[in-house]
User: Which sequence fits this backbone?
């Protein structure tokens, strides 16, 4: 077991747009950042295809290419990018200690947590089978590919309603698949959904599978599952969007940082500063609202600037 201790000025955990943008700024500020890539190198964008809303790419760019470009840009200024997963943290006193892969301990004067959030899936084998071929957990990222097509959104919360409304502006027909007999979303979102003519809400429906030859062509649903009048229903769709919540990857930091009830790290309003001096949270792990690549990148930039200021004040 490698238990070598190492001391760094700036430790960045996570390799999505927040982590790499923090790395670009931190390395240009001579903080010699060390970045651990985490479970999913490149983050959530590596699971999408085309990214058309990241400024600076007029023709669009693929998610993996964008992340490769960000990585190269961070390395160009000297960021030490390493494979490895942060498995434990001790933020009780500076220097803060982060365990990598259950063995090596890195001591850091500043820590930028950019571990992201993971979209929840239903857990159906077909979601994996059709990943990138009609299954998505981000309507803002992928909705554009379903212009004039039929799509379904799963979920009954604000995100599901928001995504259904967004998709209704692009797609021909949107089905909102809701497991209960009511929407959990706020009244105002519910009203918007009910007022949108091309959204059809399927209450008390559960998805049990997807079908299609070269991509999603439809979904197998069950209405009133387990009830005497249970009914099997198939719908024809080209896109299947999950909007059943996200899980922020904040578990190992919870003993030291404030989180909301879902687990998003709470920061001081409008900044990436946490209540622990020198520890910052950037990107989706601290953002229940926007969750966009560009907003994550912006908060990574802010975190690196704050880290630099914190170190110069020491
Ligand atoms: P929520 O947890 O609020 O809603 C998740 C939805 O997914 C629920 O309807 C839930 O059903 C459903 N769901 C969960 N698991 C399954 C499953 N296995 N099968 C089928 N359905 C499932 O998450 P959101 O992402 O919608 O919202 C997160 C937070 O962000 C909320 O506080 C929300 O208000 C906020 N938000 C606010 C927005 C705004 O104000 N504009 C926009 C987006 C989010 P059930 O109801 O049966 O539990």
Assistant:
């Amino acid at each position: 077991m490698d238990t070598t201790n190492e001391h760094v000025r700036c430790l960045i955990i996570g390799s999505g747009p927040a982590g790499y943008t923090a790395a670009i700024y931190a390395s240009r500020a001579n903080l010699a950042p060390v970045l651990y890539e985490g479970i999913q190198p490149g983050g959530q964008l590596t699971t999408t295809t085309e990214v058309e809303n990241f400024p600076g790419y007029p023709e669009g760019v693929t998610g993996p290419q964008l992340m490769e470009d960000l990585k190269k840009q961070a390395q160009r200024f000297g960021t030490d990018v390493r494979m490895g997963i942060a498995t434990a943290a001790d933020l009780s006193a500076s220097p803060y200690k982060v365990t990598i892969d259950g063995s090596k301990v890195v001591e850091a004067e500043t820590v930028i947590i950019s571990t992201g959030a993971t979209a929840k899936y239903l857990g159906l084998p077909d979601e994996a089978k059709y990943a990138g071929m009609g299954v998505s957990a981000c309507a803002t990222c992928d909705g554009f590919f379903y212009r004039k097509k039929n799509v379904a959104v799963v979920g009954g919360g604000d995100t599901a309603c928001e995504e259904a409304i967004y998709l209704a502006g692009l797609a021909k027909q949107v089905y909102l698949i809701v497991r209960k007999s009511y929407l959990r979303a706020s009244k105002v979102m519910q009203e918007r959904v009910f007022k949108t003519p091309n959204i059809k809400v399927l209450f008390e429906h559960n998805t049990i599978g997807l079908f299609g030859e070269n991509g999603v062509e439809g979904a197998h649903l069950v209405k009133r599952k387990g009830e005497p009048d249970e009914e099997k229903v198939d719908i024809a769709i080209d896109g299947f969007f999950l909007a059943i919540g996200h899980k922020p990857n904040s578990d190992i930091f919870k003993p030291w940082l404030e989180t909301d009830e879902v687990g998003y790290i709470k920061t001081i309003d409008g900044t990436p500063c946490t209540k622990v001096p020198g520890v910052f949270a950037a990107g989706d792990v601290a953002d229940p609202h926007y969750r966009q690549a560009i907003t994550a990148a912006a908060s990574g930039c802010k975190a690196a600037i704050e880290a630099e200021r914190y170190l110069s004040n020491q």
In short: Residues 122, 154-160, 162, 179-180, 184, 244-245, 288 surround NDP (CB under 6 Å). The chain has two domains: 5-118+246-313, 121-242. Residues 293-313 form the longest helix (21 residues).
